[in-house]
Specification:
Helix content is about 30%, strand content about 15%. The chain is of the alpha/beta class. The chain has two domains: about 150 residues, 3-Layer(aba) Sandwich (Rossmann fold), CATH 3.40.50; about 150 residues, Glycogen Phosphorylase B (Rossmann fold, 3-Layer(aba) Sandwich). The protein has a six-stranded parallel beta sheet, with helices on both faces. The longest helix has 17 residues. The N terminus is likely disordered.
Length: about 325
């Protein structure tokens, strides 16, 4: 565990607003110098929407006198102070030894609040006796993402937005098996994410119209959702993923395995399809989008009707700021 050492409270940057009121200092503790784009984006949204009464400071080791500590890699700490918050960023069923639950057990017991991304995490922890739980899902950026009204096009375009990992936890094997069972004259693919060129080559060899962007600026993600008919999520494990609220906000039907936030947002046959991880069954369900235009329209309408169920990153930030104040006051 890190010792609580660092700059004294009087030296914390921008700790006092012009009115003389002391800011609430939230110390985001990374516990490692390992860089993470996901954490950086998350912390950026919190700071951007923090208001004048909260100061966010990110460090590797904890500062000595912060009002609240938010530990983002609690598995690297032995114990946490009572005025701490943790977010369950990962799937609790994940098989990666780095994420084995024994590494999180004590820090979660110590934390003043445990924030889950989805109801599956909440139930999992509740069944094991954990308390002080709350659900705050990922959000979407309301400046860039808005509901889309889709028309018909010659092919159903399936979109996949995720980084490729060597462990293939994003469901690459299932993608291949489903693709073998879909007709290339009725389906195409749009892939976004580092490493996705590998899947693009596979799909092209199978005759599918396929486009890939390994790096796409977030301001262009509205265009990504405009170009697809459904978002495809085939993961084995997910805490989020972040693309689910984006799809909801853009009124994009979702086709997903039952991971992460999917069961919270996806209503079978209304705004998407929950997959069974059975390639024959799953491919048959997906093929219905092309074979039954009425069903496709039902999903489009349902996606529009439910597009207000996702929350923006501003709302996510407001909920976290409420938690910080509550944890600090105890």
């Amino acid at each position: 565990m890190h010792e609580f050492s660092g700059k004294p409270r009087s030296m914390l940057a921008d700790n006092t607003v012009q009115t003389g009121k002391t800011r609430l200092v939230v110390n985001h503790v990374m516990s490692s110098d390992l860089k993470s784009g996901i954490f950086s984006d998350f912390l950026g949204y919190l700071a951007e929407n923090g208001g004048d009464d909260i100061s966010h400071i990110t460090t590797i080791a904890p500062l000595p006198d912060a009002d609240v500590y938010h530990f983002h890699r609690p598995q690297l700490e032995d114990r946490l102070p009572a005025n701490s918050v943790v977010t369950v960023h990962h799937d609790l069923a994940e098989s990666d030894p780095w994420l084995d639950f024994s590494r999180f057990s004590q820090p979660y017991k110590d934390a003043g609040r445990i924030v889950c991304l989805n109801s599956q995490q909440y139930r999992w922890l509740t069944m094991r006796g954990y308390e002080r739980l709350e659900i705050i899902p990922h959000g979407y950026n309301a400046r860039f993402l808005h509901p889309i009204k889709r028309g018909s096009r010659p092919k159903i375009i399936l979109g996949l937005a995720s980084r490729r990992y060597g462990r293939r936890v994003k469901g690459e094997a299932l993608l291949f098996e489903i693709a073998k069972r879909l007709p290339p004259d009725k389906f195409g693919f749009l892939l976004v994410g580092p490493g996705r060129t590998q899947e693009a080559h596979f799909l092209l060899n199978f005759g599918f119209e396929t486009r890939v962007f390994e790096h796409l600026p977030y301001r262009l993600f509205q265009r990504f959702y405009q170009e697809i008919d459904a978002l495809l999520i085939l993961s084995w494990y997910e805490g989020g993923p972040a693309c689910i609220p984006e799809a909801i906000a853009t009124a994009t039907p979702i086709i997903s395995t039952s991971v992460g936030m999917a069961p919270d947002y996806l209503k079978q046959g209304t705004n998407g399809i929950l997959l069974k991880r059975n390639p024959d069954v799953d491919a048959e369900q997906i093929r219905t989008l092309a074979d039954d235009p009425a069903f496709h329209e039902v999903l489009n309408k349902g996606a529009h009707d439910l597009s207000n169920t996702a929350i923006s990153w501003m709302e996510v930030s407001m909920r976290y700021h409420r938690i910080y104040r509550e944890v600090c006051s105890k």
